[in-house]
Write a structure and sequence with these properties.
The chain has one domain. The relative contact order is 0.24. By secondary structure, it is mostly helical. The protein is elongated. The chain is built from five helices and two strands. It has a two-stranded parallel sheet. It starts with a helix and ends in a 42-residue tail after the last helix.
Length: about 250
Amino acid sequence: MKPTLMRSLTAMAVLASAVALAQTDPAASSAALPAAPSAATSSAPAPVATPGGSTKIGTINIEAAIFASNEGQRDGDAVAEKLKPKQNELKAMNDEIEGLKKQLNTQGASLSDDAKAELTKKIEQKQKTLERNNTDLQEEVRGQENEIAQRVLRKMGPLIVKYAGDNAFGLIIDTSTNNQWPNGPVLWQNPAIDITKPIVDAYNVQSGVAPPAKPSIPSGTSRPGGTGLNKPATPAAPTTKPPATQPKQ
């Protein structure tokens, strides 16, 4: 199961619990939150009042909110540091395989058939080990991401519910990656109705976690879900056939 899907399932469960809590306990989730942009200062169309309740719609990227928060960044960076030795091992293994491939390509013409077959087999075996280890690391990354997401969202959920109530929203839609069109119902949205930033700002105040002192991820590396978890590159496909050579004279 993809991490984004796991987070969305978690989001639905946590927010459902938060809604129930807000309905039974008016004092719950009393953290102060900034007001939503007013119709006078926002380019979003003004909501139409109806007897059935508010039709005001807002959006939030739950995944981005979790991992843009100071706590999400801090915990993600800690996991990245923890997994760095495994990433270094994968890189070293990948470099070794690339060196063997280069040897096969440059020396293939001078190698005997047996030597060429043995080198090709060695590359294939190391490639399978690399792919297996890479898969194991990705699963560990996904598990760590989901743990962070669930922990943060348990505390962030009530903030979202209170913000929606205080600002008369009738509906809040999650626009995380897995919900974007064509994989979800959100075809387009006006940025003015997005509440991700005020929720993150309010959560940072509530958590008391200081922002990261400096960027912990070097440029050119990827962070799934915006966390400090660096995914190693998917290994290249193995070279299973030696290059064509000219017959020996």
